[in-house]
Write a structure and sequence with these properties.
By secondary structure, the chain is an all-alpha fold. 89% of the residues lie in helices and 0% in strands.
Length: 82
């Protein structure tokens, strides 16, 4: 019996740690997207909040963050020029 309780505790602590890391990553992604001038930075941070969504959103955001910033800035500059 004690090993079952012990393993359940480890799982609960593991889940809590994953959620804390996801929350911290969402904050970092929000401020990074805002700094880069990406339109709607909250969309990316909210994608990280979704359980297991962060596993998919974080690598995509990190790999495309420069492209996203360039695209949003180009669209803004084109709209201002018109």
């Amino acid at each position: 019996m004690p090993t079952i309780v012990y393993s359940e505790t480890i799982v609960m602590v593991g889940v809590a740690l994953v959620l804390i890391v996801q929350y911290l990553c969402a904050i970092v992604i929000y401020y990074d997207a805002k700094r880069l001038g990406i339109e709607n930075p909250s969309h990316y941070s909210m994608g990280v909040y979704v359980p297991l969504g962060g596993v998919l959103v974080i690598p995509v955001y990190v790999s495309r963050r420069k492209d996203l910033a360039g695209t949003d800035r180009d669209e803004t500059s084109a709209a201002e020029a018109d």
